[in-house]
Every structure is written in structure tokens, then in C-alpha cells.
Amino acid sequence: MIIVAHVLLILLGATEILQADLLPDEKISLLPPVNFTIKVTGLAQVLLQWKPNPDQEQRNVNLEYQVKINAPKEDDYETRITESKCVTILHKGFSASVRTILQSDHSLLASSWVSAELHAPPGSPGTSIVNLTCTTNTTEDNYSRLRSYQVSLHCTWLVGTDAPEDTQYFLYYRYGSWTEECQEYSKDTLGRNIACWFPRTFILSKGRDWLAVLVNGSSKHSAIKPFDQLFALHAIDQINPPLNVTAEIEGTRLSIQWEKPVSAFPIHCFDYEVKIHNTRNGYLQIEKLMTNAFISIIDDLSKHDVQVRAAVSSMCREAGLWSEWSQPIYVGNDEHKPLREWFLIVIMATICFILLILSLICKICHLWIKLFPPIPAPKSNIKDLFVTTNYEAGAMPAVCISEFPRRGTAASVERLVKNILDE
């Protein structure tokens, strides 16, 4: 046991001595790097390079470098190598600093900073474009055996507020190591380029690199200031709507199915939204799904329109834009009315019919009175009638009636008149 204890003490002492030798000497003097340069290597891309200070005291320590981006946007990071690539906009200029550092468990030793700068490109204020927006879209590539899908690019912008009328703008994009100039422009009324269309690009729809876009210009009257911007693909990728959307109704059961959009992403990389709209009462149902099928219970006596849209899931890349809604599919029959509505319609129709019949009856009775008025009672002195008749007849002899029946019927009156006429 005593021997083992002595061995352990010896090993412990050796470990402490080794650790002490590995610790950096806090009295060491760190010198800043030399030959620090900033070089533009592409659209919105620079290369930072420097070298270790040749006068730096060499020890068994690992020196590192801290890089600080001062403009256009502050950032800092650490690296062990003597160069660094940086993707950033450059139309506002660029500046950075670097220093030597030595880290330990208890402290951080650092040299002074050395800096370099790129000045903003020349140009008159107000001449650069504004409101630059870009979108990408994926289509099937039937012309290439290397790639199944092709990405198009469309960008629009507004003319600078102080740009001369003869200003002409030109657009370039860079993705990875590929750079292209636009060949298809749209123009305003003065013939100035205000939009660009790339039907085929080198952009990878599943890629994660930044898309850099630069628009510069020329004019005979003024220097046009360039403008560049960086786009994340997930933020500008316009997803296609789902394909082959179908909807079927069985009673109150609505079954909807569809296929994934045209995209380089596989089927499990999509989220979906289903929209079901009742055209009769305006009820709107929206459901979020991760599958390409959906079943819902609906009112089978109403017509519905069904639409579906898609977005790439956050499982496969950062969340981006939703696609446009698919074309609406109409299911159901809006001609069928619920029993309650039919009952109300029948009641109202019956009431209207009864009122119409009563109105017609009243009108018919009034017309009958006009066509067949009641016969008035005969005058008490009927002698005047016969005298008048005799006067008009001329040769007809006068007849005296000593007595007229007080009571009788219309038939007796007719017989009396006939006897008078016969005489």
C-alpha cells in the first residue's frame, strides 16, 4: 500500500508540472497581424486576409484571431486561419478589423486591432434603384439530364427619385460561384429597365446559400449609384400549388386528396392548408395538415368549394412562403333546400294563393252586378205607358183599363202587354 501511495504522488506531481508547462505565460506579449487586406471576390462577397506578425514570440501555444465586422452590419467571430470569406452588401461600403488572441481557462490575451476598409462605390445620391424585390419558382426541367427541376428568377424595382430620364439599369445575380447578367427586361414609359426575368438559372431550389443581386446603371448626365441586396432562398421561393386536387362527397362525408407541388423537395417536406367554403351560408373551414388527404363532415345539402395550398416544412428548411391556392373545386348541390325552408316557402305560397282567390272573387262579384243590374219595380200608373205606345204607333186604338191587378207575377204582366199589342 505504501508503494502504491508513492506511485500516485509521483504521477500527480508529473501531471501538475505538465499542466503548468502548457498554460500560457500571462506575461507574453501578443502582436497584431500584418498585411490585413479586404478584396472583393464577387457580387456582395469579400475575402479578408492577413498574416501573423513575424515578430511574434513563438511558444508552444495556439494563437487565434478575432475578426470584427464594423460596417455595414456589426458582427464578430473567431478563427484559427489567416483568411475569411464574408458575404455582405457593399453599396454602403465595408470595414473590418482583426487582432491576435490567446485564450486560457482564466483569461483572454489580445493584441491591438488592425483595420481595413472598402469605400462605398461612387454615384449621385437618389440615383440608385429602390424597392428591389425578387422571387424564385421551380419548374420541371425536361431539357436537362443532370437536373430534374429548374429555378427561375424574377426581380422588380423602382427608378431612383433623382435618376435622370436617360438612366438605364442593369441587373446581375450571383449564386455560389455562378454570376449572370439579365437578358430579359421590362421597361417603363421612358424605356428604363424596371424588371428582370431569368427563365433558367444556376440557383438550387434546395440550396442554402445567399442569393446576391446587384443593380447598377448608367446615364449621360449623372453617375448612377449601384445597389446590391442579399436574399435568403426560403424567404423568396414561391412554392407551386398542389397538383391533381380531387374532392368527393358520400352523404355528409367529404374526401379530399392531392399530390405534392412541383418541387425538388420530397413529399414529406410539405405542410398543407385545406380551405372548405360553404357557398350557401358563407361558412369557412381551414385546416392545417402534414399529409396529402383530408376527410371532413359537411352539410350535404349545400354547395362547397375546396382549395389547397402548400409550404415547405420547417423540418426540411426554414419556414418560407405559402403557395397560391389551387383552383377551386365545387362539390355538392345548392338546389336542395332544407325541410324547414321548404315548409316556410309552402306556407307563404298558400297564403298568397288564398289572398289572390279572395281578391278575384271580390272583383268577379262587382263585375256581375254591373253586367246584370237588378230589374226595377213597375210604376203604379201603367196607363202612361200605353198612352205613349199608342201615340208612337199612330193607328193603334186607345184602351182604357179600369182596374190593374194589384198582385201578380211577371208572367201576368207579359200576358197583359201581349193582349194590348194584339188589339
Work out the oligomeric state of the chains in this entry.
single chain
How would you classify the helix and strand content by structural class?
A: alpha+beta
Helical stretch tally: 5
Contiguous uncertain segments of 5+ residues: 1-25, 385-407
Q: Give the topology string: H per helix, E per strand.
A: HEEEEEEEEEEEEEEEEHEEEEEEEHHH
What would the keywords be for this entry?
Immunoglobulin-like; Ig-like_fold; disordered N terminus; Interleukin-5 receptor subunit alpha; 5 helices; glycoprotein; 423 residues; transmembrane; elongated; alpha+beta; TypeI_recpt_CBD
Describe this entry's structure for a reader:
Among the domains are: 34-118, Sandwich (Immunoglobulin-like); 130-236, Immunoglobulin-like (Sandwich), CATH 2.60.40; 243-331, Immunoglobulins (Immunoglobulin-like, Sandwich), CATH 2.60.40.10. 19% of the residues lie in helices and 37% in strands. The chain has helices at residues 2-22, 233-236, 339-371, 383-393, 410-422, and strands at residues 34-42, 45-51, 64-71, 75-79, 83-87, 94-103, 108-110, 114-118, 130-140, 149-158, 168-175, 178-181, 185-187, 193-198, 210-218, 227-232, 243-250, 253-259, 270-278, 284-289, 293-297, 304-312, 329-331. The longest helix has 33 residues, at 339-371. Keywords: Disulfide bond, Glycoprotein, Membrane, Receptor, Repeat, Signal, Transmembrane, Transmembrane helix. It is a single-pass type I membrane protein. InterPro entries: FN3_sf, Ig-like_fold, Short_hematopoietin_rcpt_2_CS, TypeI_recpt_CBD. Belongs to the type I cytokine receptor family. Type 5 subfamily.
